[in-house]
Design brief:
Shape of chain B: globular
Shape of chain A: globular
Largest sheet of chain B: 8 strands, mixed
Largest interface: A-B, 22 and 35 residues
CATH topology of chain B: Rossmann fold
Number of strands of chain A: 0
CATH architecture of chain B: 3-Layer(aba) Sandwich
Oligomer: heterodimer
Radius of gyration of chain A: 23 Å
Number of helices of chain A: 11
Distance between the termini of chain A: 30 Å
CATH superfamily of chain A: MetI-like
Strand content of chain A: under 5%
CATH topology of chain A: MetI-like fold
Order of helices and strands of chain B: EEEHEEHEHHHHHEHEHEEHHHHEEH
Helix content of chain B: 25-40%
Chain lengths: ~300, ~325
């Protein structure tokens, strides 16, 4: 894009983008909670990416046993103590961030695009049979309580992290369909959409190039908020033994494993539980901050 | 139908009806209206909200099919939604909407918005050529392209947005433009500017306008002929100056007497003895007989029972009122 064209028109492509980013940051930073959310999410992503390098005992992530050091309470050497096999809980929690983030990334990147596209189509064809088919199909998935559906799927299939991700994906997409449906069915009545239809522009062009860009704000907000919820559901599945299997350092699995040693060796499950809360809190605060940006710039 | 004219009309609306089915019944938005628009003229459709004037415009541009009746563009039947019309006819009829905020996509630049119809109808793909075409159109609507080309709608004022909407409408080189209350959302000072632009464009390209408005003052200055609509019906139709000088229908008289004026001389010009009362009824359940009878101070038994037909009261000036017939007799 950085062609040196001697156009006479005021273009400001780059500076315009910079300008809108600056404005977004201005609205975002007005709330200290959003900044805390951003900090937590940054830390979470950093840990998830570099867990093997920053964990003091990376070998603890796998099938490592050192019974001499089992059940150690938190200390300088093991900040979060050690578990029944003598593994460093702190290192395992750091690896746990990795699994949680991977779960969220995989689930949302699988669930959001089809959900968004189906909602876009259903909203655009509101009131026709296309709308009926798509939305009733989505309603079927929405009607079943999410965790129950995931439990049912994972208990029929082999319990492992892949099936857990598939199960969560299957129950997640309809919410994006719903969100898009509501937005698109009001946008499609805007005069600019009608003008395009009168001109005879392609339906796919109208949907994907004209309507979709105006829906990105709420989608981004929902994606951010959902990271927390997906992690929570994933942890719940792991907790009941239908998600990641030991010795995977998954936060939910760790909470479940440590549960039997409560309350004496509390650190084995309390620290992973706090880590889950930490991540969810971060993404929720960040999501609220992003929502504030779009609420403010919409005016 | 209503007019006798040597020239061929550019647009002919013939017994047009548009009903909408809603959960509570049927809305008779437009109920059997006929009129013609001549090349190069500005035909006004005047009425309160709910009179069906906007719906008429929307059917003409092809937002939806009429319930019954026909629309002809230069003799070609176009009583179908826009996608089903022949391409070369579709490009001839454009619309400028009422709400400039909603008629431009907030995430597109002025260039994107105006270039799209050019891409679709002239097959120009090259960016430089498109820029030139868009620049020409922006100059026509008095927006210096150097400044406006890559602006987003949120950076523009209401009048500028409407100017962009006009530029988009001109992009297909139409001969007929429906102006659906194009200035009702704008400040008065900006209204004048937009109207001037429209008048200049009309002269330059011999455009025909269907001007939909509730603003009688504007209609008087801008239109050559006009039709007054009430609850989906045309109650009076004629040359603008005749309708203003000699309003025949009590509803027209009521509208004219409601215009706020500045001077005593102007006040004297207003029709006497008819004060505005009541509000427009429901197009779902129009009153029997003359639709205006519940608000008409002169209504009698006949008005409550029989629907009046349009009759030619003077040359090219038609009115649908029983009382007028009585008065003449």
């Amino acid at each position: 894009m950085a062609k040196a064209r001697s156009s006479v028109y005021v273009r400001r492509g780059f500076s315009r983008r910079y300008e809108s980013l600056r404005r977004a940051w201005y609205y975002f930073k007005r709330s200290p909670l959003s900044l805390i959310g951003l900090a937590i999410v940054s830390i979470t992503i950093f840990i998830a990416l570099f867990a093997p390098y920053i964990a003091p005992h990376p070998e603890s992530a796998g099938l490592y046993m050192n019974f001499e050091e089992a059940y150690q309470p938190p200390s300088w050497k093991h900040p979060f103590g050690t578990d029944a096999y003598g593994r460093d809980v702190f290192s395992r929690v750091l690896f746990g961030f990795r699994y949680s983030m991977m779960l969220a990334a995989v689930v949302l990147s699988l669930a959001a695009p089809p959900g968004i596209i189906l909602g876009l189509i259903a909203g655009y064809y509101r009131g026709t049979w296309i709308d009926m088919v798509i939305m009733r199909f989505a309603d079927i998935f929405i009607a079943v309580p999410p965790l129950v559906l995931a439990l049912a799927i994972t208990s029929v299939l082999t319990p492992n992290i892949f099936n857990a991700m598939m199960a969560v994906t299957l129950m997640w997409w309809p919410w994006y369909t719903r969100l898009m449906y509501n937005m698109v069915s009001s946008i499609r009545n805007e005069y600019y959409v009608i003008a395009l239809e009168l001109l005879g522009a392609k339906k796919s062009y109208i949907m994907f190039r004209e309507i979709l860009p105006n829906c990105l704000g709420p989608i981004l907000t929902k994606l951010t908020l959902d990271v927390g919820w997906v992690i929570l559901i994933g942890a719940a599945l792991s907790f009941v033994g239908l998600g990641a299997q030991p010795p995977t350092p998954d936060l939910g699995t760790m909470v479940a494993e440590g549960g039997q040693y409560l309350p004496t060796y509390w650190w084995i499950s309390v620290f992973p539980a706090l880590a889950i809360a930490f991540i969810i809190l971060g993404f929720n605060l960040l999501g609220d901050g992003i929502r504030d940006i779009f609420a403010a710039t919409e005016r | 139908m209503a007019q006798v004219n040597s020239k061929e009309p550019i647009l002919r609306v013939d017994h047009l009806r548009k009903y909408f089915r809603v959960s509570l019944g049927i809305v008779r938005a437009v109920d059997d209206i006929s009129f013609e628009v001549m090349p190069g003229e500005t035909f006004g459709l005047i009425g309160e909200s709910g009179s069906g004037k906007s719906t008429t415009g929307h059917v003409i541009v092809g937002m939806y099919a009429p319930t019954s009746g026909k629309i002809y563009y230069k003799g070609i039947d176009i009583s179908v939604p826009a996608p089903k019309r022949p391409r070369h006819v579709r490009k001839e009829i454009q619309i400028v909407f009422q709400d400039p905020a909603s008629s431009l996509n907030p995430s597109k630049t002025v260039f994107d918005i105006v270039a799209l119809p050019i891409k679709l109808y002239k097959g120009i793909k090259k960016k430089e050529e498109l820029e030139n075409e868009v620049a020409k159109l922006l100059e026509l609507v008095e927006l210096p392209p150097e400044y406006y080309m890559y602006r987003y709608p949120r950076e523009l004022g209401g009048g500028e947005k409407q100017a962009v909407a006009i530029a988009r409408a001109l992009a297909t080189e139409p001969s007929f433009i429906v102006l659906d209350e194009p200035t009702s959302a704008l400040d008065v000072s900006i209204q004048a500017k937009i109207i001037n632009t429209l008048v200049n464009l009309q002269r330059k390209f011999n455009l025909s306008y269907l001007f939909i408005t509730h603003d009688l003052g504007l209609a008087r200055n801008f239109t050559t002929r006009l039709a007054i609509m009430y609850l989906g019906k045309i109650v009076e139709i004629g040359p603008t100056e005749r309708v203003f000088e000699n309003p025949l229908h009590p509803y027209t008289q009521m509208l004219l007497s409601a215009i706020p004026v500045l001077t005593e001389e102007e006040e004297k010009l207003k029709p006497r003895g008819i004060a505005s009362r009541g509000e427009i009824g429901s197009p779902m359940n129009p009153p029997p007989g003359c639709r205006f009878n519940p608000r008409c101070p002169f209504a009698d038994e006949v008005c409550r029972k029989i629907e009046p037909q349009l009759i030619e009261a003077e040359k090219n000036h038609w009115v649908a009122c029983h009382l007028y017939i009585k008065r003449v007799q």
